[in-house]
Amino acid sequence: MTSPAPPSDLRPIDRLLAIMARLRDPNGGCPWDIEQTFATIAPYTVEEAYEVADAIERGDLSDLKEELGDLLLQVVFHARMAEEQGAFAFDDVARAINDKMIRRHPHVFSDETYENLNAQKEGWEALKAAERAKKGRAASLLDDVPVGLPALTRAVKLSKRAARVGFVWPTVQDVMSKVHEEIAELEAEIAAGDLDKARQEMGDVLFVVANLARTLDVDPEDSLRFTNAKFVRRFRYIEQKLAERGKTPEDSDLAEMDALWDEARAADKASDAA
Asked: Model confidence at 146, in pLDDT bands (50, 70, 90)?
């Protein structure tokens, strides 16, 4: 038996909460929504966060509005499942982040002051460390860096944590030397035909590259997204030019496609210089 949707004159967030409660209702709700758990929904939560980042990258504010709604739905979904278990509800989630933001901004909501931005960042990290200690977490400095983060992002966060206590290469040149060292070790394993060790060395290369990104204050995920987009743009150029010749990539060869790649790269450089 169906029932009408929650009335549209409710506050939007209240209506969304009511919609989710209805979807999860064992008596006439949506079978798919009802069977979901924190674990099954988690991948969608991560995916929606990336959809938000993609809309921002494209500068599409209309799409961003929609994607933020999708991400908000994920928060509401998790909060609803927790409420059903008697753990917490959406209001508790909002209350917790309200309290955290006030606590972490004493220079805004109390009389504390910071001399500069670096002092503010140090104060922020000190407050987070105190929160971790209060919760009895993080026996190691690295313990609460989430395992579920994208590997490159987690590598940056791990190296950043270690850098706080001085476990860091002093200069960019030192990190670059380590990059070359790790690449040489990877090359050696490839030459030896040991692909298992090569896989491990590849990880070392990626980790030190992430460390280099941290040293340069560059987000490696952002850099790689940019390069991915560039690759897609240039490969589409290859496909377009081949189509004009009545061909597909399967009908072509590396020499022809590489020449078209160089054309696309030259066009990119000309556009950048304009």
From this structure: confident
Q: What is the pTM of this model?
A: 0.69
Question: pLDDT by residue (tens digit) across 55-90?
Answer: 998 899 999 999 999 999 999 999 999 999 999 999
Hey, which CATH number is domain 138-218, 3.30.40.10, 2.40.70.10, 1.10.287.1080, 1.20.950.20?
A: 1.10.287.1080
> What is the amino acid identity at position 84?
E
Taking the domain 12-103, which CATH number applies? 1.10.287.1080
Domain ranges for the chain: 12-103, 111-137, 138-218, 221-273
Provide the phi-psi class of 172: left if phi over 0, else alpha when psi is between -120 and 50, else beta: alpha
